[in-house]
Amino acid sequence: MIGRLRPRTDLRTLITLLAVASIVITLANALYATWRVQRAELIENTLENNRVYAAKLASTTELFFQLAQSQLRFSANTIGKDFDDDALLQSEVDRLREQTSSFNSVAVIDANGFVRAISPESLTLKGMHLDSDSSHAALTARAPMIGKPSISAANNLIVFISTPIWSRDGRYLGYVGGTLYLKKKSILNSLLGEQYYRDDTSLYVVDSDNQVLYHQNGKRVGQTIAPLVDDKTLDANKNGALEIDHLDNASMLAGYATVPTAGWLVVALKPTLTTLQPLTGLLFNVLRHSVPFVLLTLLASMVLARLIASPLWQLARRAGQMEEPGVSEEIGAIRSWYFEAAQIKRAMRTGILSMQDKIGRLRSEVQSDPLTGLLNRRGLSSVLDYLLATQQPFAILAMDIDHFKRINDNWGHDVGDRVIQQVAIELNNASRQTDVVCRNGGEEFLMILPGAQPEIARTIAERVRQSIFQSSIEQVGQISISIGVSFWQPGDGPFGPFFKQADDALYQAKHAGRNRVVIAGTVAEPLL
Ligand SMILES: Nc1nc2c(ncn2[C@@H]2O[C@H](COP(=O)(O)OP(=O)(O)OP(=O)(O)O)[C@@H](O)[C@H]2O)c(=O)[nH]1
């Protein structure tokens, strides 16, 4: 379990990843926020534009109807003065149609519904009785009116505008009416059609029954479509805007306005998709402009991440090498430029120093003999490892205090210990600086003489023997030691047999009467 928790990622990677992630998230956030704000703004602007546009067209259409009514009123006044004058009637309907260009056709109908004059005359309706609903409505209403758009006898979708004709003495004489052909070229068509099809905005006009009176797609004229807004909303707001989904299955942004005189509704539409098209470009632009900044930020944060993590990373690496020599100096060289790293660095250095101190003490305790302070066998083994590694020749002196048992027996163990200590001092004094003295256990000692040739080794061994023999030890007096000497040369193989040779030589020295030096491979000489 613990193994699984072992971290594999280092701090530098983590901080860098964190920096990259936060920059990416920030960028994504900024893009999303821009997208949302811009989307809302585009939709709102388009809705408002369409509303304003529909309102403008509706008021233009309203103005047109009022103008048409006043033109008809003027003619009605003229005709009312002499209703029997057919020529006057004809010239008035011709004038109305040709001069004003407001109507596709103009007619004067008498109070019984008979056509008294018509323009163009090609319609050949003069003298005929008009049975259309609009005509009946006009005759009944005896007031200015705009009829419901309907299909004419000549299969035209027409809208009929009429004004009553009164005689000077107030008799109702009939009405003068103009028609507009909604499917054909008419002033209304020109008015609506010329305006707009830029940037995918389209337009349609419906009457109060939702019959299409004008549409960009001419085939839709005359059809009935689903109401854009309910009547209540229309009554409350003469114009407005909304997003709709039902038209042609595509989401549309619609602005609408009513034409009060006719009860028509003008609707300007733009697909939501087209409206939002600039967003893609905008986002791309934002992204394009952000990239250098993002890269710079990324670079800066990576450098910063490295700067922050670097001291901790270096300290962590050194933490695995605390026992190695010089690690404290390496840690000291690490640039810890902020408080936490400096504190960790200081704590690590203090820890290393105290650890190394402890290890050093433990080592010397482990490698030295507590009674004499000389190296023990373990210490000797380190020295031998070194000699083996450096392939230096050396001499071995195996030494043993003569008749030591007697000393113990005569003066006690403590005095025996003091003798051992004294011999150790003498051995140290008689040895060279490069020689290694070691207590081999009990009253036995070993001396390693690196680089010593046989003659030098013999001289030193003899010097050691004499110095001990000549020294007088308190209480005990004179003592002696026996020494066996052997040599090891590079290429001689393992050390073991050479220590055995030194031991054998020591054994010979003892047998030969003690207090003497025997070189391995030679016969013990009698003491001089
Ligand atoms: N005081 C003291 N005595 C020790 C110590 N280690 C060993 N001895 C004693 O040293 C004596 C060694 O005696 P032996 O090995 O018989 O040899 P010897 O009396 O020195 O005689 P030779 O070596 O033959 O000259 C024993 O009595 C041990 O108890 C020690 O650390 N302190």
What does this structure look like?
- The chain has about 525 residues and is of the alpha+beta class.
- It folds into 3 domains: about 40-280, 2-Layer Sandwich (Beta-Lactamase); about 280-360, no CATH class; about 375-520, Alpha-Beta Plaits (2-Layer Sandwich).
- Helices cover about 50% and strands about 20% of the residues.
- Strands 1, 2, 3, 4, 5 and 6 form a 6-stranded antiparallel sheet that branches. Strands 8-7-11-10-9 form a 5-stranded antiparallel sheet.
- Helix 2 (about 10-80) runs antiparallel to helix 7 (about 270-320) and helix 11 crosses helix 12 (about 415-430).
- Guanosine-5'-triphosphate binds near residues 413, 416 and 420.
